[in-house]
Amino acid sequence: MVAIMDDQAARLRKLVSELRSGRSTARITRTLVPTRVIAVTSGKGGVGKTNVTTNLALALAQRKQRVLILDADLGLANVDVAMGMLPRYNLSHVLRGEMELEEIITTGPLGVSIIASGSGVRELANLSDSARARLLESLASLKADYDFLLIDTSAGLGRNVLGFVLAADEVLVVTTPEPTAFVDAYSMIKVIFQENPRARVNLVLNMVLNETEARDVADKLTVLVHRLLGAAITPLGYVLRDDRVGEAVREQTPLLILYPASPAARCIHSLAAHLTNGRLTAPRSDLRGFFSRVVDLLKP
Predict the structure, then answer these.
(1) Helices marked H in 230-262 — which ranges?
(2) pTM for the model
């Protein structure tokens, strides 16, 4: 056992040295395949953020995209529930050195991959050098390459939320037409641009009555952001209010699986089309680099 631990410590020291010196091994280089990293967030809870995340992942998968979801919602982590799954392991097992990242990834409907976080997101804020190196080494061992990483963050302006939002290549802010959600969405967008004036922020209006309402709310928020912040956001689209969404939640089955032809499902497909049609191209990251940024941003 001592010999095994000594060998592991030696490998971790070597990895840290390589990361600091800018060198990389063949295994690390394998993870540098670009992935589009999108943080899905909201100014307040109850706007349907997780439903948008999970169903958008499925819509992207149906467009032949390889998708990984990271459930980074500490308060109400329920991506697995929305997908009708019950993962046994989560990110905290990786950070404690009990498992490799590849071992905790579960496969959901249509081949969408999921990383359950548990308390792992909170633990990211206090990683030792060896734990950080272990995480990066685990990322280097991933066998699958992904086109998209969707991060389902907590709602609000907490430190963990901003860590993921600011580390991502782009942000998808989900809100609804109600005034409190509108105000909170603006507050979130304001903080994002204060911290990163070059941020790429997309907007999704959820639970709207019709296209006209969606356009009116999106236009108001876009004008407000431009006038008060001197910044630009991109309205990605909208999702109609649809009773079948609630039915899918109660059945613990994604809307796109249970009611694929429903009005809300068609809206989700439209969002996926906008993300993949080339009009909204965005920078891409390697997963190792993304998690490195998250760890740096979450440091006390």
Answers:
(1) 243-251, 255-258
(2) 0.84
